[in-house]
Amino acid sequence: MVKTREYQVLLSACNQEGCLLCNLVHESIFRYLDAWKYELFTDVDIRQELRNTQGFCHIHTWQLAGMGATLPIAQAYRDILSDTIDQLEQNTTLTSPAAGGLFRRLFDNKSDTSSKPACPACKQKLQAEEGYIHNLRQALLDDEFVAALSASTGLCLDHFRQTSELRGAEVSGNWLQRLRQAQLSCLKRLDAQLAELIRKHDYRFKDEERGDEMKAWQRAAGLVAGEDVLKRTKDA
Predict the structure, then answer these.
(1) Which residues contact 20 (CB under 8 A, 6 or more apart)?
(2) What is the torsion angle, in degrees rounded to the nearest 10, for the CA atoms of residue 16, residue 21, residue 27 and residue 29?
(3) What's the rounded Cα separation, in Å, for the pair 90 and 92?
(4) Which InterPro entries does the entry link to (predicted)?
């Protein structure tokens, strides 16, 4: 297959610790939030979108805070709080909590997370995931990439499921079988490392030399729950 730039990005990501899709998507979101912090927060349309979504979600708000976006957050979130103040002042006599315009949206957005508009960074995350998953499926048709993926940490369970099932990113060929084989190799290796970690916590073996298996619990947490993106932001 043609070794495109997208292929090289995925191949390089196999050499990093953790789920390669978590890492790549996090880098994409970091670039978006960094651009928002320095430029996009003054864009009128983006500010209006934030008012409609009542800010970024919990994770991306605090990711921005960890990136030092003090003034942009203050200005953008003041808009949201000012809207809420106006509606409270206009609706202090209403008996229904969901009555009237933006005041209704305040309750609608927070009471049902399934209908709440996605924050702008979450939209970027979904777009990045779809793009990387499509590229990953294509890369899986290459033997060199499959070998690199098999030697990596593997995909977190959520991204493994998405890569297996996502519609709209169809690729012909036996990529799914190759994905499952690579993931199985990664999980079996991690399982053996976890078993060794647990064994060495037994007092009978406490004096044995300890190696990379002692970090296996972190890799297991990342694969089961997804990588810790907030920690990665603080380390950046």
Answers:
(1) 10, 13, 14, 149, 152, 153, 155
(2) -160
(3) 6
(4) DUF6062 (IPR045706)
Q: Which residue has the tokens 């009471």?
A: 111
Q: pLDDT (tens digit, 9 = 90+) per residue, 201-213?
A: 667 767 767 677 7
Contact between 194 and 220 under an 8 Å Cβ cutoff? The reply is yes
pLDDT tens for 160-204 read 999 999 887 678 899 999 999 999 999 999 999 999 988 876 677
Q: Which of 27, 43, 98 is nearest to 76 (CA)?
A: 43
Report whether pLDDT(101) > 80: no
Supply 122's token pair: 């979450």
Total structural domains within the chain: 1
Residues whose CB is less than 8 angstroms from the CB of residue 189 and which lie 6 or more positions away in sequence, other chains included: none
User: Cα–Cα distance between 236 and 232 in angstroms, integer?
Assistant: 6
Buried b (16+ CB within 10 A) or exposed e, 157-181: ebbbebbeeeeebeeeeebeebbee
CB burial of residue 79 (10 Å; 0-12, 13-18, 19+): middle
Measured between alpha carbons, how far is 143 from 93 in angstroms, rounded to an integer?
68
Q: Are 20 and 186 in contact (CB under 8 A)?
A: no
Range of the domain at 138: 5-235
Length of the chain: 236
Position 83 pLDDT exceeds 60 = yes
* 23 Cβ contact list (under 8 Å, min separation 6): 13, 16, 227, 232
